[in-house]
Amino acid sequence: LENIIGIKREEAILASAKKGIAIDQILESIVSRIPPPKGKPDSPLEALAFDSWFDSYRGVIILARIFEGTVRVGAQVELISSGAVYEVEELGYLTPKPKKVDRLIAGEVGYIIAGIRELSHARIGDTITEKNRRAAHALPGFKEAKSMVFCGMFPAGESSVEDLRKALEKLRLNDSSFNYEPENSPALGLGFRCGFLGLLHREIIQERLEREFGLNLVTTAPSVNFKVTRKDGRVIEFHNPSRIPQAQEIQKIEEPLIEALIITPDKYLGVVLQLLENRRGEQIKMEYISTQRIFLTYHLPLNEVVIDFYNQLKSVSQGYASMDYEFSGFREASLVKLDILINREVVDAFSVIVHKDKAYARGKKLVHRMRKLIPRQQYEVSLQAAIGKRVIARETIKSYRKDVLAKLYGGDYTRKMKLLDKQKVGKRRMKKIGQVEVPQEAFLALLQME
């Protein structure tokens, strides 16, 4: 247990919040074990913004820790990264209710309201200082989070791109690890390419957008960041499969690798190991942490984890297995771009980067699932999976067909053929101008391939 949670046996406190046991001991330990904050109240102001949210009446409210100096109501403060200057309107503590004060001094944590309306000016991790007595430099130690998982988000139904942009700005305000950039998809229109720390982070952002802002969204399959070395020696990074260079220009492709830490009961070891091997995993270590629990360490491609891996792990272990992971670098792999074509037109939102050995099976499963999910049209719809110009799988959605022969009561067969030929011409014309609407369920098929 000491190895799992990282606490020595003699330092652990036997406590219960439910029963109120050893609460005083915990508070005393906080005072004795955690060093007091350092800083001088008369030094130039240095405050670190570590959280923020938007209030429609007061603007951006910033939570900050004061490392050096003092901030007072009415002072002119500057946010170093943007250079924006504002006048402090209100200061206070959260206790947890807001409690107004006239000043915050070195060592204290409180909220700052300065009428900030421009959301991009208030960045988490930014340093706040006085305009007339600036700090010599920004506070060190803050490292901007790097996104690991990416997906496209597009408005659907009555939601607009502008509604989505405003909602993303407000979410970005108190979550600096989340980022986005505009994206234009021929299939889905205008939207945003969003970056997340991981799969859970992506699900939380999507849920908040739908619940808090009432948006209807279409999301593409998650992807990861790849490195491509061109034959001319240039190295580029991309996370959108549609931006991969042509195959003849590529010398090698590298994919991100993670070190996965998995704990599972021993009776599920066989099926968990099979799942890991199917996802191109490499075993690093396996050890028993108790008589019935096993600790596994595996190297896994992140591209294999973002698609339904966690759900599969829970399924094969009946919910008992747990997993954590951390990024461990890049590794060269034999990867190809798998495209999905609807009526011979590439739908970039369905494009994915997959391992060459899995491309055929993945493409066949995907078009088979999409055939059941895309509604039938008045004309025939073809679904194809292709690598470059080579089609590796195909399914066809049959068209609705009106019985044009019902009104005939007899006569020569040429009358029937004339009506059938006329119907075929109409369906070919309809196919040229018709648009196939792809439902959200078809995009979810990418996430449930097993």
**Percent helix:** 10-25%
Strand order within the widest sheet?
5-4-10-1-2-9-6-7
Tally the helices: what do you get? 10
The total of beta strands comes to 26
CATH class of the largest domain: Alpha Beta
CATH H-level superfamily title of the largest domain: Elongation factor 4, C-terminal domain
Q: Tell me the major beta sheet.
A: 8 strands, antiparallel
Measured between the Cα atoms of the first and last residue, the distance is 34 Å
**What characteristic shape results from the CA principal axes?**
globular
Beta content: 35-45%
Number of domains: 5
Mean pLDDT: 83
CATH topology group of the largest domain? Alpha-Beta Plaits
User: What would you call the structural class?
Assistant: alpha+beta
Q: Segments where pLDDT lies below 50 for 5+ residues?
A: none
Mind telling me which CATH architecture of the largest domain this is?
Answer: 2-Layer Sandwich
Return Rg in Å.
29 Å
Key features?
450 residues, alpha+beta, Elongation Factor Tu (Ef-tu), domain 3, Alpha-Beta Plaits, 5 domains, eight-stranded antiparallel β-sheet, six-stranded antiparallel β-sheet, 26 strands
Structural write-up:
The chain is an alpha+beta fold. The chain has 5 domains: 2-33, no CATH class; 46-130, Translation factors (Elongation Factor Tu (Ef-tu), domain 3), CATH 2.40.30.10; 149-219, Alpha-Beta Plaits (2-Layer Sandwich), CATH 3.30.70; 227-333, Alpha-Beta Plaits (2-Layer Sandwich), CATH 3.30.70; 337-447, Alpha-Beta Plaits (2-Layer Sandwich), CATH 3.30.70.2570. The protein has helices spanning 2-5, 23-33, 161-173, 199-212, 269-278, 302-305, 309-316, 359-373, 413-433, 440-444; strands at residues 46-55, 59-68, 70-72, 76-79, 84-87, 90-94, 98-101, 103-105, 109-116, 127-130, 149-155, 179-185, 189-196, 217-219, 223-224, 226-230, 235-238, 250-265, 282-288, 293-301, 322-333, 335-342, 345-346, 352-355, 381-387, 390-397. The strands form 5 sheets. An 8-stranded antiparallel β-sheet has the order 5-4-10-1-2-9-6-7, covered by helices on one side. Strands 16, 17, 18, 19, 20 and 21 form a 6-stranded antiparallel β-sheet that branches. It starts with a helix and ends in a 6-residue tail after the last helix. The relative contact order is 0.08.
